[in-house]
Amino acid sequence: MNHRKKNNHLSRKYGHRKSILSNMSSSLIKNKKIFTTLAKAKALKKYVEPIITKSKINTTHSKRNIFSLLRDKIAVSELFNESFKKVRERPGGYTRIIKIGFRSGDMAKVSLIELVDFNNIYNSKKNLKLVRRSGKKKRVNPIE
Fold this sequence. Notes:
Layout: H1 14-31, E1 33-37, H2 38-54, H3 60-70, H4 73-79, H5 85-89, E2 95-102, E3 109-115, H6 120-123
Antiparallel strand pairs: 1-3, 2-3
């Protein structure tokens, strides 16, 4: 049974897991998307979403708290930039996990984790096309 086992340990000790999640979250904040295994992506989502929620409060205290989790000055300054304004207005659900396929070496499930507001394909209104999903087109009988 898996009751009361909140986080995935990723087969690593505490210090290694903490540094992996910290490095991956700072890479996600800087690059807006990263490719990783599905298990790491799910663990990263639980780790990075509270950090982004804390960045909504623009105080020195919240910056120091976030720096203690990320350990990267560039990523912390990126979180408090104007480019993340759209993210801070969102009430939650800052990241999206897209399953890509399997890694050829060990057949691990590979996925893409990205920040939702920075994907131009899903967010642009002009790329949306109205598609009719009705039945087949009516054919005109050439004999008539």
